[in-house]
Structure formats: C-alpha cells, structure tokens
C-alpha cells in the first residue's frame, strides 16, 4: 500500500519528461511502472486506447489494464495489442480502480458515466488521475467531478471531436475541463498520444460546455447551409458556383467550405459518397439534446438550437437516415432531387 | 495612364453592335465621349457614383449624368464632384436614358426598380448598358431584364455586399447575373471602379440569387452564433475562450471568427461599439424577406430561414434596435446581461 | 343585346326571392332565363357545379354552361346532369363570358385565375356577376377584382373550406370578399346552393385573407397537437385520456377535439384510416405558402407560421405522405411507432 | 403511537361521507381528529389552504397545521383563519410530518419539492397521505413518489390549472397521478374543496405530464393565434370579424375563442386590460421548460414546442413584459401597433 502510493506520486509525472525522477523511481523499485487503465472499448474508445498503448507506453515503464461491458472487446484488444507493453483485462471497473494510476473512460451517455464512476470511485486511491472523454451532459460531468474531489482523485472531463477517423489517426481534439491549470498540465501528456489538439476550457464541466456549444452551432449551420444551397439550386444556380461565392463571403462556414452537404460540390466528404461515414444523424441528435438540456438548466433561449435538435431527431428516425452522416439533412429536406435536375 | 484610359474608353463602346455607327461619330466629333448615367444617390449609391466618377472617368473621354428622386442629392453630388469630368443633372430618368450609354442604378426596392426602368426603357437607345445594383426580388430582376431585352439594351443585375464602408472604399463585392458571359466582361470594367470583387453568378437574376442566398445564410448563422455564445457564457465559459475554440473547430463561421456578436470578444466590430454601424437589422430583415419570397416561389423548404426572418422582423421593431447592427440579436435574446456577469 | 341586358338585371335577383319580379320578367319573355356559367370542373368544382345545377336551377328559368381545360370533364358533367335544366359546353372561357350572366370559377392557383379572368373579362357584359372560389394569393385576388371593376362586372372572391366531402354534400363554408355589402347579398343566393355557411369577410381579397388565416392557424395547431400527443404518449399517458383532459382545458383546439391526429383516439377522422381522405399535405402546404406570401407582403412576423409551412413542404415530399391527410404529420414526426407501444 | 395509527386509518375516510364510521371513531376517542398539514403558502398555496380549511374542515373533527419558508405567511394565515377549526404553525416541515395525517404541498420548483419531501419523509408515519400540487418536472415527481413508497406513505402528484383566480374561487382543475385508482379516490375528497374538476391521469408523474402537455399546447396555440390575428389585421381585416370566422372554423382554439390576445376583441380577458393579471409570461416560460425537459428525456421531437419555449423566454425578459399575461406575445411581436390602425 505504501509502495503503491509512492508510485502514484511518480505516476503523475508527465510521461515524456522528468526522466531523471522517473529513473530514480525505477531504480528503487522494479514495480514502479505507470499503470494506465482504460474503460470503454467501443467505436471511439478502442482506437483511442490502442493509440495510447502504442504511442504512450513502453514495456519497461508501463502496464495497461482494460475493461469493457462486453468481455469480447477486451479480449480482442489484448489480442491486437501484441507483445509490447503488457495488457491485462480487469473483471470490473472496481478492479481497474484498484490497479491503475491513470484511468481513461469513454462511455456512451451520462448514465453510464455515473454507473462506472460509482464503481471506480469506490476503489480509487488518492491522487488517481481520472480522464472522462465521454460526451455527456454538463450537470453529470460536474457532479461526478465532485465525487472524485471527495476521494482526492484528480478528474477532468475531456470530450473529443474528430470522430472515429480522428480516434484511429490519433488526431482528435480534446476539450478539457479541469479543477486547476496544473491538473490540465498533468493530463495533457496522456491526451497528446490520442489527439493533436488539447484545449483547456476552464473548470470541470467546461470541456462538455465547449463541445456542446461547438456541436450545436455546427448542427444549426449545417441545416442552414443545406437550406441555402437548396434554395440557390432551385432558383437556377450551379451549386459549385454558389458554394464558391458563399465561401468568400459573409455566409461562409465550415458546413459550406469544408463539409458541403450537396453531392458533387466537394470531394472526400460524406455528401460525395451518399452520406456514408462521417458524423451520424443519431450522434448529432444526441449532442444537440445535451445542448438543449444545458440551455434549459441555464435558462438560455436557443430558438434555432431547439429547432435544429427536433429536426435531427426526426431525420435520424426517418427510414434510411439513421446511419447516415448528419449532412444528409440536405437530402432529407428535398434537396437531392433538385440537385440532379 | 493614357493607354489605360484609352483602353477604358474602348471598353465602354457598345457592346456587340453598331461599331460602324460609333466610328462614324468618333470621326465626326471630338465629343465621342462615353456618357455614364447614375440613378439613385442614396447611402450606397452616392459613394459608388463618386468612385465611378473619380476612378473610372476623365474629362477628355467621359461625361457623367446623375439623377435622384431628391434633387438635393444630385446638387450635392455636382458640388462635391469638382472640376474634373463634367457632371450634369438629368431632370428625369428618361433624360438619363436619352443622354447616357452606360447607366448604373441603385434603388431601395423592387417597386422602385420597376418604376425607374419603365422610365429608362422608354428612352434608351439600342445597346445601352444597364447595370442594376439594387438588391431586389429575383422575379422582378428577371422581369425587368426581359423588358431590357425587348429594347435591345444589355442589362445585368449586380447587387453588392460590403455595406456603406465598402461603397465608400470601393471594395464592394458585385454579384452579377448577365445574359451572356460576354455581357459580364463588358460591365466588369465599370464595376471594378466601385468594388474589388466582381463575380459572375450566371444568367439574369442569379446575381440576386447569390446575394440573398449568402445573406440568408449569414442571417441564420449570426443568430446561431449568438445563441451559442450566450449558452456557453451562461454555462460559465469565458466568451473569448469559447470563440477561440469554436473558431478552430467545426462550428466556425464568419459570424464567430470575423463579426462576433458578443461585446468584448473582438475589436472593430459593431458588437464592440454597442452595435452601431454595420449592417442594420432592418436591412437584414428586408434581405431575408427576399429569400423567403424566392423560397416560396421555388417551393424550397427553408425552415431556419423563415424562422430567422421572423426573428429579424421582431428585432428590427423592438424599441432601440431599428438602427442597430444585426448582430445585436445577441443582446436582444438576453445575452448582454449575462456577458457582464 | 337590349334584351340581354334586361335579362342581366333580372338575373341579379336572388334565386329564391323576389318571386314577383321574376314572374314579371318571365311573363314578358320566354327567353328570360338566368344563365349560369361554371369554369373549372375538378375535384372541388365538379361537385359544386352539380349542386348549383340541381339545387339552384330549374329548366324553365335557367340555363347552365360549363367549361374545363379538359373537355372530358365537361362531357362527363353533361352526361351526369341528365334531362333537367339544359347544360351546354362552352369551347372557351370567352364563350362562357358571352353566354352567361353569373359565372363561378374554381381553379387551382393564382396563375390559372389570371389566365381565365383575362379570357372572361375580354368578353363579359356590364353587370355580369363573377364568383371566384379558388384559393389564391391575396394580391392576385385584389388585382383581378380590379380588372373586373374596370369592366363594370361585379366580382367577389369566395374561397371555400370543407374539402371534397363538403363540396359533394353542399355544406361548404364560403368566405366572401366583395366590393360592397350589396354585392355580397347578390351572390349569397347562388353560394347557398353549394354551401351551408356564407360569411362576409369585407372588401375584395378578404375572403382569401380569412381563409389563409384560418388555415395557417389550423396548420400550426395540428403540428402542435401532434407534438403534444406524442410527448404525452412517450411519457406514458394513454392518448384517449390525454385528449380528453386537453379537450376540457386551455390547450383545446379543433385539431385535438374534432380531428385528433393520433390513430385510435377518434372515430371517423383520417387518423383512424391511415390518414386517407381529408385535407392533403400538399394542399395544406400550398395554403400555408399563400399565408407566407401575404405575411411577406404585409411585413407580418409569422415565426410559427413559416416554420409550419416548411414542415408541411418536407412532409408532403416525404415518400408515402404526398397524398395523405395533413394530420399524418403525427406519424411523420415519429408518433405512430410510440403509439403502438 | 398506536393511537396515532388508529387515527390514521380513520383519517383516510372521505371527509364528507361515512359519517357513521366517523362518529364511531369519534366516540372512541375525543382526539380522533383528522390533522391536515399544508406546506407552501404562496400566491397559489395561500388561497388553496384557506379553501381547504374553510370548506373542508370543522372544529370538532379537524386540526390544521401550516408551514411556509417565510414565517410571516404562516402568521398571516393563522390571523385570517379566525376562530373555526384550530390552525397552528409548524416550525419545520419535519414537524408538519410528525403532526399531520394528510399533507398538501404547493412549491415553486422541483428543487424545493425535493428539499421539502426530504424533510417530510424523514418524519412521516406509514399511510400518511401526501399531495404535491406543485408544477414540476416529471422526473422529480416520479422520484419523490418513489421515496414516499419506501416510507409506506401514499403520495400523489396533483398539479393544478386555473391560476390564482381559480385558487381563490376554489375552481381549480387538479391533474392527478396516483399509484393506484384507490389512492386517487382517497385524495379526491380533499381536492374537491379546492377545485371543481379532479382528473385521474394515471400513475405517479402523469399529473405533471398532463399539465405540461396541456400548457405546451396552450403556449404554442397562443403564439399561433397572435400571429394569425396580426396577419389578418395587417391584411386589412377587422379583428373581431376575423376572430368570429376562425372561431366557427377549423382554426378555432381556446386562445382565439376564450382568451383572444388582441385588445378589443373580447371583454374580461388580459388583452382587454393591457395584459394585466392572467397567466404570466414567466410562468408560461417555466412550464414550457418542463415540457422541453420531458421531451428531451423521452426523445420526443417538439419542434414548435421548443420554439415557443424560446419565444416565451425572450418575451419574459423583454423590459415591461415580465409581469404581463402570456397573451402579450401578440403585442411583443408587433401586433398592437397595427391593431390600433
């Protein structure tokens, strides 16, 4: 136990710095490895964990412990991990907490975060670093951070943007809410193995706030871009020409210049491949629901935000759209038929 | 310089026809000057006309004829014009048509365009070049272009963006709908004295289509930006930090990165000076009304566009907002109080 | 000709009153029949014309002249008319105008009304009574009424509500805009054979205004009713119970108490027969477009009206909904699946 | 204690029936009075409590215990109660629980309900009847009912409609969610002294569901009515005539036929007295927020509901509207100016 807490303090050193200190601790105990736990090996979590393992650990200094509600996911991860840093499977989240110094979680919804952290926080030691990369409601993020504080654990909310491609490529953006600037500096080295942009957004919960604000705005501008392109095309304009005019004018936005929803305007975006891949209508619907929830709690009037949320809910439930990219809202509103004319 | 203006005068030759006739007139009289008419010397038209006069004409090769519904405007223009290229006032639009080879019009609404062009087209000669820079409904733009065609005049719709600052600085963007690519090339030299970007948008009417599409998208994204900033601030985020995160993410748009509606986030934008100057709520309301009209005619579903239109109508009528920049929608929705917290 | 104009003045007597005067005119000339023309024998016009013929005319005092763009419709009408009041087919609208004293028109859109009335008004005699029952934009209704005034004809706009069932049963509501109260009294007797409620709404155009106002409100309340029922059901309430509570409370509206959109709540409404019959999504979309047009012209902020318009446009274009009743918006928004749970 | 539980079973008899049984119990113990507690003597609670006291109790058979966060409210109640049934003030909600058999609560928000019921349920005896008439979110209503179940108390949610006038007149409508039909029958006699319509809406939480569904629909239809009236008036129609046409047509709703928002159309409604009295914009905003919350939890798409919520939030915050009736939305959207024309 003593030993374990000693390790904990060394484990909080950045992975890539303080080599002297680390070597000191290594010299005093062969067991002085940093033990990283990862809970949630889904679409996003799996490739994130793999990047963290392969880029951020080495056999001599790290151990890696994984857990997922589906044991098959853990087994697959162990198999794919190969013979580098040792990877073991924990039978429960409590076991992860007992064995790891740094724990990353990637879960679908607030209710899962509550359940998992109840398990983790029943067993964590003081000073454990907890990084929740789930996208959840701000209220839950703040509440769970409060639980962690009571256990003297250091928790940050660090939701991501970039989707599964970004998770695989290790190019995610992390939006981090942390109790102190020092805490942000402490988690940053771990996140850098999974993402290329690590942004400090303020206190706990603000990571979630930043993410849902960005995604709400994205959700609205995409519908707005779709309506605008559709209107212009129906009035007789060539969509590429219209996009090029808008993209050098005041209507310009990411949804027109980087992710245009009209088939044929841009290459390499979901609209060019029948809206396959990308950021699904269901996920956008979920994220906008989080924005609506935050707006309701904070009594913020989000007229367009609420409207867009309802539109994505209807879109996601329309037959054939549940698994499409959210830019398929262009087709849903009657756009494509006209584009082909 | 000589060469340059020589080119200009040749460029002002009537476009496709009557070369022989013109050569005759050139040989018989030193008076073979290009005569430019300008109708509508309002907030926008006045500085545009001044730029066209001072940058695009010289005494030896041009005459300039102006007309405005308010004679005082014309008188003021003559006084300010000075002793360069001769400027005279026409008593009626019919007189402008009789005397000018190239005519630019800048009028408030479609009904004025109809009235003025009825007057002009009753007196124009064949081949007269007509440039309407008013922002009006597409249906009127197409119809009036049809009238011009019947008179063998060459008409383009060329609405602008850039506001009065752009009009004064000569940095407007012109969105041009023209009957042929050649016609576009023919009007471009004139427009270049008043703007820095001259975009060909297709056939007659498409200049208007491009403008209302851009402005509809702008109108929606501004409200969306205001809602998003307000939400984030109420949830505890610093507005500058939130803007910086959004501006490097997928929510990015002109309304967040160039014209942020939250006081204190950016310098030199209307939100930093209590929403003075800029693009007024009434003008945005008017432009969105043109978009709604086009959408209704073309049976395009613009759910957010229609919503935003109604919001700007209500905003423009709220006491104290009628003369503010359209980004004051942030304050109107209750944003400013929170920003000050 | 003299004779004809004599007839005209007698024809303007209400059909069911002034019997003495009528008998006088009948005694002076066997030819003194009232000649009724009907243009537009579509879904609505056909049964309306049949009611006017069978209930409002008799062989000794009337003639009936029909015209439709499709000759087959006229032929079918003549066949079905039988051997009572003589029915003849006019080859053109001009012929209708030449031969009839009272003319009813029932056409799809404003552009058809313009075209037909150009034809009619080129040939009508002074004092001819013109009743346009088409649902069209207010601007066209007023303009065409102006044309009629120039020809000394008496024109009213008299759009209907009640749908094809009401047209067949003769129970339509007519909303009448007329130049004078006397003109309203003059057309009322004819309308009473086709409808049970004849409402004077003011000057020309106001019949259209009343209709689009009612239908805009109906369109919004139907969506609102659908959202509310859906929300309550998803929260666990029995839809019949919820409807009964609302219908005795302040949320009550025609869309909940007379035309509830949830299958199984009421008998005999479209929702109880998979949304067959009733008032189609396309027609609702069209009527709301007229409201949007009027709002744009009058600078009225209709935030919910514009939103509902866009929703019906999208609904009407969704595969399988184009021919359904407009209350199918409940199913479209994801309602039915939950109702079955 | 025994004695107390004996009383409890007698207390569960309806107040006005089973007189024989009651007299039996009265004969066995002079102390066998029904003890009614009331927590929350605000705008609504005060007159409700007064009605329950004066209509539903008598000195020989009842005691009345009150508590409010502001002691002055309790003192005023005792003073106004007079010399009939004895009224005493409890120093805490815990004391109310200890002393009362039936407890009614009327509190502003869910957080107050949570706090008060934590206090009450720490001290209630088995079988205590708990009636919460607060309008709160469904999730809280269900959760608190669960706490009561664990204590073997019988709890119902019974939010009201009718406002302060209904509270004073004792004509409220109660929408009751109860664990069983029997429980509903048990609380009904108490509610009948405070209201005229007592509706069973199903299980716990459904009282809240029914109320927020009704009020969401009301909130939308009021805006829709305001838009429609405004449109018609701007198009030239007399508002009384327009209302009368709509009220006999399919656009009819409570907001047009009972509570018309246009000044001068109806007598005795808030619009006829500059929107004073009635149901405040802030309360409507709050209730629609509860609907948005329920919709978000149940993943119900409420496009118009969310839009209306945002509109009432903005309305309530506009200077001069915070204390007006919610039908003032007509004036806010620019209606009044036209009405006066």
- Beta strand % of chain A: 5-15%
Which consecutive residue ranges of chain A, at least 5 long each, have pLDDT under 50?
A: 1-30
Topology order of chain A in helix (H) and strand (E) letters: HHEHEHEHEHEHEEHEHEHHHHHHH
What is the CATH domain class of the largest domain in chain A? Alpha Beta
Helix content of chain A: 40-55%
Rg of chain A, rounded, reads 22 Å
Measured distance between first and last alpha carbons of chain A? 72 Å
Q: How confident overall, as mean pLDDT of chain A? A: 90
Contiguous helical run count of chain A: 16
Kindly name the structural category of chain A: alpha/beta
| Number of DSSP E strands of chain A | 9
Largest interface: A-B, 66 and 66 residues
Specify the CATH architecture of the largest domain in chain A. 3-Layer(aba) Sandwich
Return the CATH topology of the largest domain in chain A. Answer: Rossmann fold
CATH superfamily descriptor of the largest domain in chain A? NAD(P)-binding Rossmann-like Domain
GO molecular function, one term (chains A, B, C, D): NAD binding
Pfam families (chains A, B, C, D): NAD_binding_11, NAD_binding_2
Family (chains A, B, C, D): Belongs to the HIBADH-related family. 3-hydroxyisobutyrate dehydrogenase subfamily.
Active site (chains A, B, C, D): 211
């Amino acid at each position: 136990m003593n030993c374990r807490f000693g390790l904990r303090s060394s484990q909080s050193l950045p992975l890539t710095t303080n080599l002297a200190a680390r070597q000191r601790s290594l010299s005093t105990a062969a067991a002085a490895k940093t033990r990283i736990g990862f809970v949630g090996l889904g679409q996003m979590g799996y490739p994130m964990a793999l990047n963290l393992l392969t880029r951020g650990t080495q056999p001599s200094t790290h151990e890696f412990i994984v857990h997922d509600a589906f044991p098959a996911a853990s087994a697959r991860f162990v198999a794919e991990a190969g013979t580098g840093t040792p990877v073991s499977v924990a039978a429960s989240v409590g076991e992860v907490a007992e064995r790891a110094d740094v724990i990353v979680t990637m879960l679908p919804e607030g209710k899962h975060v509550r359940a998992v952290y109840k398990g983790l926080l029943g067993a964590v030691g003081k000073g454990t670093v907890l990084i929740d990369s789930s996208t959840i409601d701000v209220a839950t993020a703040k509440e769970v951070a409060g639980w962690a504080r009571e256990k003297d654990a250091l928790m940050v909310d660090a939701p991501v943007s970039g989707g599964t491609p970004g998770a695989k490529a290790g190019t995610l953006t992390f939006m981090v809410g942390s109790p102190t600037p020092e805490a942000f500096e402490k988690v940053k080295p771990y996140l850098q193995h999974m993402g290329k942009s690590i942004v400090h957004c303020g206190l706990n919960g603000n990571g979630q706030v930043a993410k849902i604000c960005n995604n709400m705005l994205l959700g609205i501008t995409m519908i707005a871009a779709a309506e605008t392109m559709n209107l212009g095309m129906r009035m007789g304009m060539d969509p590429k020409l219209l996009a090029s005019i808008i993209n050098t004018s005041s209507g310009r936005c990411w949804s027109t210049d980087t992710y245009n929803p009209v088939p044929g305007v841009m290459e390499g975006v979901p609209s060019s491949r029948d809206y396959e891949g990308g950021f699904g209508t269901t996920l956008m619907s979920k994220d906008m629901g989080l924005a609506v929830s935050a707006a309701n709690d904070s009594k913020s009037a989000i007229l367009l935000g609420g409207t867009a949320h309802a539109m994505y809910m209807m879109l996601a439930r329309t037959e054939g759209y549940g698994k499409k990219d959210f830019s398929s809202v262009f087709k849903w509103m009657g756009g494509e038929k006209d584009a082909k004319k």
